[in-house]
Amino acid sequence: MIKAIMARMPAILAVLVLFAFAAPELSAQQINPTASAVQEEQLMRALQSGEAVSGRVTIVDPRAADLIKPGNKNWAADHGGMVKTINIVAILGILAVLVAFYLIRGKIRIEGGFSGRTIQRFNAIERFGHWLLAATFIVLALTGLNLLFGRALILPLVGEGAFGTISAWGKIAHNYLAWPFMLALVIVFVAWVIHNLPSRTDVEWIKQGGGLFKKGVHPPAKKFNAGQKAIFWSVIIGGVALSWTGVMLLFPEWAGSSSDWQFYQVIHAIVAGVLTAIIIAHIYIGSVGMEGAFDAMGTGQVDENWAREHHSLWVEEVKARENAAPGGAAQPAE
Ligand code: HEM
């Protein structure tokens, strides 16, 4: 019997050694039920430091691996806080200024009355560019504002079903109208940049407040006055910023990291709000705020008295060109 045990001793020892190593492993698992707590601690640390908690993915976009990204909270706060506040202050602020301006100054009339003679102010290409820009911008602004404020303002009015439909179509309109907007921006830039370079007459125009605040004051101006130049450059610079950030939002793979994408989103929404406020002022002065102004973009023809009161140097240029033309025939204004 002892002999038999001795003969099997190596095998018995081997089994005991195996148990000696295996047992602690087993008991560690048993007495360490906190393996998930360790992971949780890592998770809490990651949440505090703002880095992403990531898994592993086999698809091309590695950002899809981010399970939790505490940095997103900053973006969500900006989106809900700062961005909305800037939009509200800019838009309600300009509306308040315009109402006050209308109540104090009233509609800006042609002081000499309509002369009955007209001058061509904008040709068909200029008007096409302007109205393409205007139509696309207005839809982009409304559908963009719906993303920021629709849930608070429109949803309670129309209900969930209608709001869902409006927002879904709004998103499609926003994504697709961005392209004709960019085209219009190019047309308007090419057509008008030459008339919007700063000149010495701008200083005098600004000193006299553009004649906007006092009757009988008409500072000289060429085709565009300093106020219009400010609108033009706001539209061009703001429009390029909106286009650039908008394309990054449409194609996140070009934007870089997800926080870069969020940065573009914040810039996009802020520039949009400020430009919308500027354009509200422009629409007011180009329509109900100033007698005779709308015709410039409507028919392309403006009354001569309107032109003399608001763009006296431009009228002189047009008249000089007409007189220089063979037979003194009227030439379209540039
Ligand atoms: C219903 C909306 C709009 C109306 C009634 C309107 C009206 C006008 C008028 C009458 C002019 C010519 C002013 C002149 O003869 O000197 C003008 C020019 C211009 N418009 Fe508009 N516009 C509208 C919307 C827009 C929008 C949405 C944009 C851009 C996003 C825009 C950009 C411009 C620019 C850059 C000019 C040339 C600079 C200036 O006159 O201020 N417009 N607009």
Word description of this protein:
With 334 residues, this protein is mostly helical. It has 2 domains: 26-69, no CATH class; 71-328, Fumarate Reductase Cytochrome B subunit (Up-down Bundle). It has 13 helices and 4 strands. The strands form 2 sheets. A two-stranded antiparallel sheet has the order 1-2. The protein has a two-stranded antiparallel sheet with strand order 3-4. Helix 4 (82-105) packs parallel to helix 10. 17% of the residues are buried. The protein binds protoporphyrin IX containing FE (HEM). Protoporphyrin IX containing FE binds at residues 121, 130, 133-134, 137-138, 188, 224, 228, 231-232, 235, 279, 282-283, 286-287, 293-294, 296-297. Protoporphyrin IX containing FE is lined by residues 121, 130, 133-134, 137-138, 188, 224, 228, 231-232, 235, 279, 282-283, 286-287, 293-294, 296-297.
Topology summary:
Elements: H1 2-31, H2 35-49, E1 53-54, E2 66-68, H3 71-80, H4 82-105, E3 118-120, H5 124-153, H6 155-192, H7 200-207, H8 226-250, H9 252-255, H10 258-286, H11 295-298, E4 301-303, H12 304-310, H13 312-324
Antiparallel strand pairs: 1-2, 3-4
Helix pairs in contact: 3-4, 3-10, 4-10, 5-6, 6-8, 8-10, 12-13
This protein binds protoporphyrin IX containing FE.
Largest sheet: 2 strands, antiparallel
CATH class of the largest domain: Mainly Alpha
Q: How large, in whole angstroms, is the Cα Rg?
A: 34 Å
Mean pLDDT: 88
Please trace the helix and strand order, writing H or E for each element: HHEEHHEHHHHHHHEHH
The class by helix and strand makeup works out as mainly alpha
Euclidean distance between termini CA atoms: 120 Å
- What spatial form do the alpha-carbon principal axes imply? elongated
